[in-house]
Amino acid sequence: MSLHTSTGAPTKAQGRRFQQIKLEAGCVCCRLRGLGYTPPEIHHLIEGIRRIGHDATVGLCPWHHRAVPHEGWTRAAARETFGPSLAEGSKSFQEVFGDDQFLLVAQNRILQQLSLVMSVGAAA
Questions:
Q1: Which of residues 120 and 12 earns the better pLDDT score?
Q2: How many helices (DSSP H) and strands (DSSP E) are in the chain?
């Protein structure tokens, strides 16, 4: 699989960010709805039509990212429980979850909180 993207290959630090989002933080929208961890995909935020970069990424579950309902869910039930999907239109998605900048700030706060919990747990 090629890493040829508009943003190039991620640095080691960016790769760690991706792993922390995937393994610990989960979908930022599910977290904002109080649903806890949901396995995410990495979504690169854009400006115009170009990706901003690997540091401007958030975790979105398949529903919030691509409008693929979770196993056993209908699209209507997913929309009702999880809110709108970005793939179904950015306007309704942003009305519920905020714009890209808000999601990036929320994602970074979640990562920061997880890092604090992990460091406290390691010190105990």
A1: 12
A2: 6, 4
